[in-house]
Amino acid sequence: MPSYAKERFHFWRPITAIREGGFGVTADPGWTPLVETPEHPEHPSAHATECMAGATVLRSVFGNDAQPVTYADECAASRVWAGVHFRTAGEAGQKLGEEIATYVIRKLLRPLNGGE
Fold first, then answer.
1. N or C: which end of the chain has fewer CB within 10 A?
2. Closest CA relative to residue 2, chosen from 46, 61, 37, 50
3. Ramachandran class of 98: left when φ > 0, alpha when ψ lies in -120 to 50, beta otherwise
4. CA 58, CA 69: separation in Å to the nearest integer?
């Protein structure tokens, strides 16, 4: 994800919120996340964006009847569990990913062999 997208929101990450405390959170200066925290701002989650974009394209091609595509939610949640994002970053990333995929599907994907 381009850094300007994250710089626009300049939202702190869980590591900062937990170590510094505030807003009802008791400071825990020794807390560490499961995954190393990137050095750029938190919002939106690039992982959630990419996963939802992929899931949206897969749903458009294969439908959702035989096997639902659910990994996008798990992908977004995994970044919260790992301690590198707040849930709002995942939600924003999923919305962005769906919008990007919808645009790509509408503008760039074309049927093969004269299909509908």
1. C
2. 46
3. alpha
4. 8
pTM of the predicted model, to two decimals? 0.80
- Count the Cβ atoms, other than its own, within 10 Å of residue 102: 14
Picking from 37, 22, 14, the residue whose alpha carbon sits closest to that of residue 88 is 14
- pLDDT in tens for each of the 116 residues of the chain? 455 655 666 778 899 999 999 888 899 999 999 999 988 888 889 999 999 999 999 888 888 776 677 789 999 999 999 999 999 999 999 999 999 999 999 998 877 766 55
Domain map of the chain by residue range?
41-116
